[in-house]
Amino acid sequence: MSKPKVLQLGEIVLAHKKWEQLTEVAEIITPKATNREEFIAECKSGRFDDVVAAYRTFPSVSITGIFDEELVQATPKSWRFLAHNGAGYDQIDAHACAARDPPLLVSNIPTIADDSTADTAVFLILGALRNLNPSMQALREGKWKGSPPPALGHDPQGKTLGILGMGGIGRNLKVKMDVFGMKAIYHNRRKMSSEEAAGAEYVSFDELLARSDVLSLNLPLNPKTRHIISTTEFAKMKKGVVIVNTARGPVMDEDALVKALDSGHVASCGLDVFEEEPKVHEGLIRNPRCVLVPHMGTWCVETQTRMEEWTIGNVIEAATKGKLVSPVPEHVDLQ
Ligand SMILES: O=CC(=O)O
């Protein structure tokens, strides 16, 4: 009997052993396309007609483009599963995938990225709050702390950490920042139990904005959360607030952030994600009070290995059992 076909969209960098397990149960094919137009043509050409599942990475978007309605409609009906190697799946329109007949079911990696992403947020909180970046920059320019030295930073102890989005990463961050003596409040679509929120206090969105000394964005990007933080929201925050974003750039209006930084209303920020990656707003680059990291929240051997392994596990389950291990929340009831 022939093996089910799996489409590989993106490289396997670390989890080679797990990939071997997949090759024992599935035949792997790779696209010939080098851009979206070619990929859609390849989908329509019949070359993927027996594909049942695909493995995909973030960078493979350079070949396929985003999985929107147009692309989803071009995929063959045999292709039922899309295993995404990442926590955030904003490159995939989960609703268009669900609406296809039959649905194209999507999985992500639910908890594996929590530690490393929260760790990145800790780094950014401390860096931005303590105002470490100007003198780190001055040191490399041979100017020691810089002249005059930068404004004094602030201790995290006793400050209020506002968490917008209390999922796995928000919760993980809350627990870690307890050690630094921060008091955590949060806002989320739904109020969680005290245990789920690790004891953080639930507040309304406006109260979160008004009370936070540091505001950390930990929510997924979707049409409802795009620019959830913009001019109106900055105006409701304390003067001197610190903003940290390890979620997705477009949840915050970058132009509005730059204006709030320039006016001094926002004291400093720590960003791992940007609105138009890899482009970074000039107003952020020129401002030494911005701690900037080029989307490296999960850039660690251990996490990346586990992310690849988990995603391959989803593909194996799909190819051999016709279901996913960790479907995205929108698709849980569809399989
Ligand atoms: O940004 C990283 C992820 O969503 O996994």
Automatic annotation (TrEMBL):
D-isomer specific 2-hydroxyacid dehydrogenase catalytic domain span: 27-328
Keywords: Oxidoreductase
All residue ranges annotated as the D-isomer specific 2-hydroxyacid dehydrogenase NAD-binding domain in the record: 123-297
TM ranges: none
Pfam family, one: 2-Hacid_dh
PROSITE patterns reported for this sequence: D_2_HYDROXYACID_DH_2, D_2_HYDROXYACID_DH_3
Family the entry assigns: Belongs to the D-isomer specific 2-hydroxyacid dehydrogenase family.
Protein name listed in UniProt: Glyoxylate reductase
